[in-house]
Design a protein that fits this description.
single chain; 236 residues; alpha+beta; Jelly Rolls; Arc Repressor Mutant, subunit A; 2 domains; five-stranded antiparallel sheet; four-stranded antiparallel sheet; 11 strands; 47% helix; globular
Length: 236
Protein backbone atom coordinates (compact mmCIF):
# COMPACT_ATOMS: atom_id res chain seq x y z
CA UNK A 1 0.00 0.00 0.00
CA UNK A 2 1.36 3.44 -0.85
CA UNK A 3 0.59 7.15 -0.92
CA UNK A 4 1.39 9.98 -3.37
CA UNK A 5 3.51 7.73 -5.54
CA UNK A 6 5.04 8.45 -8.94
CA UNK A 7 7.28 6.24 -11.03
CA UNK A 8 8.68 6.88 -14.51
CA UNK A 9 8.16 4.63 -17.51
CA UNK A 10 9.38 1.07 -17.01
CA UNK A 11 8.69 -2.55 -17.95
CA UNK A 12 9.13 -5.86 -16.13
CA UNK A 13 8.44 -9.56 -16.56
CA UNK A 14 5.47 -9.74 -14.17
CA UNK A 15 1.86 -8.61 -14.10
CA UNK A 16 1.12 -5.45 -12.16
CA UNK A 17 -2.25 -4.62 -10.61
CA UNK A 18 -2.76 -1.03 -9.49
CA UNK A 19 -5.88 -0.05 -7.53
CA UNK A 20 -6.89 3.31 -6.06
CA UNK A 21 -8.22 3.45 -2.49
CA UNK A 22 -8.37 7.25 -2.10
CA UNK A 23 -7.96 10.15 -4.51
CA UNK A 24 -6.88 9.80 -8.13
CA UNK A 25 -3.93 8.38 -10.04
CA UNK A 26 -2.74 8.77 -13.62
CA UNK A 27 -1.38 5.62 -15.26
CA UNK A 28 0.12 5.47 -18.74
CA UNK A 29 0.32 2.08 -20.46
CA UNK A 30 2.03 2.18 -23.83
CA UNK A 31 0.66 5.33 -25.42
CA UNK A 32 -2.69 5.15 -23.58
CA UNK A 33 -3.30 7.34 -20.54
CA UNK A 34 -5.84 6.47 -17.84
CA UNK A 35 -7.17 8.32 -14.82
CA UNK A 36 -8.07 5.96 -11.98
CA UNK A 37 -10.53 6.92 -9.24
CA UNK A 38 -11.52 5.18 -6.02
CA UNK A 39 -12.52 1.57 -6.66
CA UNK A 40 -10.90 1.45 -10.07
CA UNK A 41 -7.79 -0.43 -11.08
CA UNK A 42 -5.66 -1.36 -14.03
CA UNK A 43 -3.90 -4.58 -15.00
CA UNK A 44 -0.55 -4.15 -16.74
CA UNK A 45 0.70 -7.17 -18.67
CA UNK A 46 4.31 -8.43 -18.61
CA UNK A 47 6.61 -6.42 -20.90
CA UNK A 48 4.16 -3.51 -21.23
CA UNK A 49 5.74 -0.10 -20.78
CA UNK A 50 3.93 1.90 -18.09
CA UNK A 51 4.32 4.80 -15.71
CA UNK A 52 2.47 5.99 -12.61
CA UNK A 53 1.78 9.49 -11.37
CA UNK A 54 -0.01 10.71 -8.26
CA UNK A 55 0.23 13.67 -5.89
CA UNK A 56 -2.80 13.00 -3.70
CA UNK A 57 -3.85 9.37 -3.52
CA UNK A 58 -3.68 6.15 -1.56
CA UNK A 59 -3.26 3.08 -3.67
CA UNK A 60 -2.48 -0.62 -3.66
CA UNK A 61 0.08 -2.15 -6.01
CA UNK A 62 0.35 -5.92 -6.49
CA UNK A 63 3.08 -7.41 -8.68
CA UNK A 64 2.61 -11.09 -9.48
CA UNK A 65 4.22 -13.69 -11.71
CA UNK A 66 2.46 -14.98 -14.82
CA UNK A 67 2.95 -18.46 -13.33
CA UNK A 68 0.34 -17.69 -10.65
CA UNK A 69 -2.35 -17.20 -13.33
CA UNK A 70 -0.82 -19.59 -15.85
CA UNK A 71 -4.09 -20.71 -17.46
CA UNK A 72 -5.10 -17.10 -18.09
CA UNK A 73 -1.68 -16.02 -19.31
CA UNK A 74 -1.32 -19.02 -21.63
CA UNK A 75 -4.55 -17.95 -23.28
CA UNK A 76 -3.33 -14.37 -23.81
CA UNK A 77 0.48 -14.77 -23.97
CA UNK A 78 0.69 -13.18 -27.42
CA UNK A 79 -1.86 -10.47 -26.63
CA UNK A 80 -2.40 -7.36 -24.52
CA UNK A 81 -5.70 -5.80 -23.41
CA UNK A 82 -7.26 -3.04 -25.49
CA UNK A 83 -7.75 -1.44 -22.07
CA UNK A 84 -6.55 -2.88 -18.78
CA UNK A 85 -8.79 -0.59 -16.72
CA UNK A 86 -11.37 -2.31 -14.51
CA UNK A 87 -13.90 -1.37 -11.83
CA UNK A 88 -13.44 -3.54 -8.76
CA UNK A 89 -16.42 -4.59 -6.61
CA UNK A 90 -15.95 -3.88 -2.91
CA UNK A 91 -15.58 -7.54 -1.95
CA UNK A 92 -12.75 -8.07 -4.46
CA UNK A 93 -11.02 -4.81 -3.51
CA UNK A 94 -11.09 -5.97 0.10
CA UNK A 95 -9.60 -9.36 -0.82
CA UNK A 96 -6.82 -7.66 -2.81
CA UNK A 97 -5.99 -5.36 0.11
CA UNK A 98 -5.52 -8.41 2.36
CA UNK A 99 -2.97 -10.08 0.08
CA UNK A 100 0.43 -10.47 1.73
CA UNK A 101 3.61 -12.29 0.76
CA UNK A 102 2.61 -14.93 3.30
CA UNK A 103 -0.89 -15.42 1.85
CA UNK A 104 -1.40 -19.11 0.93
CA UNK A 105 -0.84 -19.63 -2.79
CA UNK A 106 -4.30 -21.16 -3.34
CA UNK A 107 -6.02 -18.09 -1.88
CA UNK A 108 -3.73 -15.74 -3.79
CA UNK A 109 -4.50 -17.56 -7.05
CA UNK A 110 -8.24 -17.37 -6.38
CA UNK A 111 -8.13 -13.60 -5.87
CA UNK A 112 -5.91 -12.92 -8.88
CA UNK A 113 -7.91 -15.21 -11.16
CA UNK A 114 -10.99 -13.22 -10.12
CA UNK A 115 -9.20 -10.07 -11.28
CA UNK A 116 -8.30 -11.74 -14.58
CA UNK A 117 -11.89 -12.91 -15.07
CA UNK A 118 -13.09 -9.36 -14.48
CA UNK A 119 -10.64 -8.08 -17.08
CA UNK A 120 -11.83 -10.74 -19.55
CA UNK A 121 -15.38 -9.43 -19.14
CA UNK A 122 -14.30 -5.80 -19.54
CA UNK A 123 -12.10 -5.72 -22.62
CA UNK A 124 -11.05 -7.17 -25.93
CA UNK A 125 -7.43 -8.15 -26.66
CA UNK A 126 -5.01 -7.27 -29.43
CA UNK A 127 -1.78 -8.82 -30.69
CA UNK A 128 1.35 -7.53 -28.98
CA UNK A 129 4.48 -6.43 -30.82
CA UNK A 130 7.17 -8.34 -28.95
CA UNK A 131 10.09 -7.30 -31.13
CA UNK A 132 9.72 -3.66 -30.15
CA UNK A 133 10.45 -4.23 -26.48
CA UNK A 134 13.94 -5.77 -26.72
CA UNK A 135 15.80 -2.51 -27.24
CA UNK A 136 13.44 -0.66 -24.91
CA UNK A 137 14.21 -3.09 -22.09
CA UNK A 138 17.93 -2.69 -22.78
CA UNK A 139 17.55 1.08 -22.44
CA UNK A 140 15.59 0.78 -19.20
CA UNK A 141 18.14 -1.64 -17.78
CA UNK A 142 20.96 0.71 -18.74
CA UNK A 143 19.31 3.68 -17.05
CA UNK A 144 18.51 1.66 -13.94
CA UNK A 145 22.16 0.69 -13.63
CA UNK A 146 23.59 4.11 -14.43
CA UNK A 147 21.21 6.92 -13.43
CA UNK A 148 23.14 7.57 -10.21
CA UNK A 149 26.20 8.53 -12.23
CA UNK A 150 26.91 9.95 -15.69
CA UNK A 151 24.12 8.69 -17.95
CA UNK A 152 23.97 10.19 -21.44
CA UNK A 153 22.78 9.13 -24.87
CA UNK A 154 26.42 8.78 -25.87
CA UNK A 155 27.00 6.37 -22.97
CA UNK A 156 23.87 4.45 -23.97
CA UNK A 157 25.07 4.26 -27.57
CA UNK A 158 28.43 2.87 -26.48
CA UNK A 159 26.67 0.26 -24.34
CA UNK A 160 24.13 -0.87 -26.94
CA UNK A 161 26.00 -0.32 -30.19
CA UNK A 162 23.27 1.92 -31.62
CA UNK A 163 23.63 5.38 -33.11
CA UNK A 164 22.85 8.18 -30.65
CA UNK A 165 20.38 9.91 -33.00
CA UNK A 166 18.55 6.64 -33.63
CA UNK A 167 18.31 5.92 -29.90
CA UNK A 168 16.95 9.39 -29.22
CA UNK A 169 14.27 9.10 -31.90
CA UNK A 170 13.37 5.50 -31.01
CA UNK A 171 13.00 6.24 -27.30
CA UNK A 172 10.91 9.37 -27.88
CA UNK A 173 8.53 7.50 -30.19
CA UNK A 174 8.21 4.55 -27.79
CA UNK A 175 7.68 6.52 -24.57
CA UNK A 176 6.50 10.00 -25.60
CA UNK A 177 9.38 11.55 -23.66
CA UNK A 178 13.01 12.33 -24.30
CA UNK A 179 15.81 10.15 -22.96
CA UNK A 180 17.03 13.03 -20.78
CA UNK A 181 13.55 13.52 -19.34
CA UNK A 182 13.35 9.81 -18.51
CA UNK A 183 16.74 9.87 -16.75
CA UNK A 184 15.72 12.94 -14.77
CA UNK A 185 12.39 11.37 -13.78
CA UNK A 186 14.20 8.27 -12.51
CA UNK A 187 16.67 10.41 -10.58
CA UNK A 188 13.91 12.49 -9.01
CA UNK A 189 11.94 9.35 -8.12
CA UNK A 190 15.01 8.05 -6.26
CA UNK A 191 15.48 11.44 -4.63
CA UNK A 192 11.94 11.28 -3.26
CA UNK A 193 12.77 7.93 -1.64
CA UNK A 194 15.93 9.32 -0.06
CA UNK A 195 14.27 12.50 1.19
CA UNK A 196 11.54 10.47 2.89
CA UNK A 197 13.61 7.60 4.27
CA UNK A 198 17.04 9.02 5.09
CA UNK A 199 18.68 11.83 7.03
CA UNK A 200 20.90 12.81 4.12
CA UNK A 201 21.07 16.49 3.22
CA UNK A 202 19.44 17.75 0.05
CA UNK A 203 22.91 18.13 -1.48
CA UNK A 204 23.82 14.53 -0.59
CA UNK A 205 20.54 13.28 -2.08
CA UNK A 206 21.27 15.22 -5.26
CA UNK A 207 24.73 13.70 -5.63
CA UNK A 208 23.45 10.20 -4.81
CA UNK A 209 20.92 10.54 -7.65
CA UNK A 210 23.45 11.50 -10.30
CA UNK A 211 23.31 15.29 -10.16
CA UNK A 212 26.53 17.29 -10.03
CA UNK A 213 24.72 20.62 -9.66
CA UNK A 214 22.37 21.44 -6.78
CA UNK A 215 20.74 24.13 -8.90
CA UNK A 216 19.94 21.60 -11.62
CA UNK A 217 18.60 19.15 -9.03
CA UNK A 218 16.34 21.76 -7.42
CA UNK A 219 15.04 22.91 -10.81
CA UNK A 220 14.20 19.37 -11.96
CA UNK A 221 12.69 18.41 -8.62
CA UNK A 222 10.33 21.41 -8.76
CA UNK A 223 9.52 20.62 -12.40
CA UNK A 224 8.47 17.01 -11.77
CA UNK A 225 7.17 17.12 -8.18
CA UNK A 226 5.83 20.66 -7.99
CA UNK A 227 7.60 21.65 -4.76
CA UNK A 228 11.18 22.10 -3.61
CA UNK A 229 13.10 19.14 -2.12
CA UNK A 230 13.01 20.85 1.29
CA UNK A 231 9.24 21.37 1.19
CA UNK A 232 8.73 17.81 -0.02
CA UNK A 233 10.70 16.44 2.92
CA UNK A 234 8.84 18.64 5.41
CA UNK A 235 5.47 17.43 4.11
CA UNK A 236 6.41 13.76 3.67
Amino acid sequence: MGENFSFPAHIHHSFELITVLEGHMMVTVGTDRYELSVGEGIVVFPEQIHSLGSTKSRHLLVIFSADIVNAYYSKHASEIPQSGKITLPDYLLNQISLLESSTPSVKKKAVLYSVCALLDESTEYKKRKNAENGLLRAIFDFVEGNFQKKCTLEDLGNATGYNRSYLSRYFSEATNMSFLSFVNRRRISKACELLKSSDKTVLECAYDCGYTSLRSFNRNFKLYIGVSPKDYRNNA
